[in-house]
Amino acid sequence: MDIQPLLQTLQDTPVAAFIRESGSVFPLLESVHVIGIAIVYGTIAVVDLRLLGVASHRRSALKLIQDLLPYTWVAFVVCVMTGLLMFCANGTTYVQNTAFLWKMGLLVLAGLNMGVFHLGAFRRIGEWDTTLPPPSQARVAGFSSLALWAGVIFLGRWIAFL
Amino acid sequence: MSSSLIIAWLYATPLSTAIRDVLWVIPTVQSIHIIAITVLFGSALVSDLRLAGVLATDEPLRGVVRRYYPWMRNALMVLLFTGLIMIIAEPDRVLVNTTFWLKMVLVVTAFTLTLLLRRPLLRAPDEREKRPIKALAWLSIGLWCAVIICGRWIAYTI
Predict the structure, then answer these.
(1) What was the pLDDT predicted at B124?
(2) Does residue B70 belong to the interface with chain A, where contact is any CB pair within 8 Å?
(3) Residue B73: which domain range?
(4) Which of A48, B104, B126, B157 could form a cystine bridge with A142, CB 3.0-4.6 A?
(5) What is the rounded end-to-end Cα distance, in angstroms, of chain A?
């Protein structure tokens, strides 16, 4: 299936044209996107480092996750919304951008990694909540998450250079 | 010596040319810059929200601030270093850019505020706080957001 006609239609909508043509809307979306990224990766890294065994501002891993995850999610939604708006404006070129496609792929992997953690080690968090270092399953999840999200950030920056 | 001469000299240095000639250097340095932003802003956010009385209020303030401050300081070092590389590589884009200088003023202001809010907690135990800490903590978060916005806007000014 050819996605280009669909993306072209999207790109021709008044909203997309406005984002593309107004001088300040696109950089503003980018700025909010970066603030969102800083909150997503900043809070996720605190949790991931705790899963790797680096002490955080509290001993309980569960309470730490409950402290920070709401901020992660709100910021992630902000990133998705600003990302979608930027995508609308130039969809036909983004889907031909290798860095963009890899970024989307890594996002899926980061989501899967989180899913595996929540269905696995997280279900038994009561057993290792205050234990340092955490079990290997949690450490693998923390390391993968740090690496995958860092990859997402790198590829995001590379989109502009390809 | 005028600024345009300094810029022309810096632009022509072998280091500046070398950074521009190797195509992956600038995007890689910028990516590291963004990762460091996430570390600085993430640590600032968590400890400022604790200072504002929003997050982890059952944990002692000193402990939270002490845990995150070294991450903020180290991330700032990485940011200054990667920022310097970007200045050396493209001085003509940066040094005459008003948004860049506004960003620098905001960085100095934000980090000074960070130190002012944290220093009493990093040192002496339990001094009674009389300053409007909560409002200043929110101001700090706002200032870092402004820094990020200016950083993105450098690419669009001149």
Answers:
(1) 64
(2) no
(3) 3-156
(4) A48
(5) 25
pLDDT score of B125? 61
Find the mean pLDDT for residues B91-105.
95
Using a CB-CB distance cutoff of 8 angstroms, which residues of chain B are in contact with residue A98? none
Q: Per residue in A127-158, is it b (16+ CB within 10 Å) or e — as a string?
A: ebeeeeebbebbbbbbebbbebbbbbbbbbbb
User: Count of domains in chain B?
Assistant: 1
Question: What pLDDT band is residue B131 in, cutting at 50, 70 and 90?
Answer: low
Number of domains in chain A: 1
Amino acid at B107: V
A30/B152 touch (CB, cutoff 8 Å), yes or no: yes
Please give, rounded to a whole number of angstroms, the shortest distance from the CA of B5 to a CA of chain A. Answer: 29
pLDDT computed for residue B114 by the predictor: 95
Low-confidence ranges of chain A (pLDDT < 50): none
pLDDT value at residue A5: 92
d(CA A35, CA B145): 7
Count of C-beta atoms within a 10 Å radius of residue A23: 8
**pLDDT of B127 above 60:** no
What's the burial of B128, exposed, middle or buried (CB within 10 Å: 0-12/13-18/19+)? exposed
Range(s) of the domain holding residue A101 = 4-161
B61-80: b (≥16 Cβ within 10 Å) or e: beebbebbbebbeebbebbe
Give the best residue of B22, B30, B46, B68 to mutate against chain A (max A CB count within 10 A).
B46
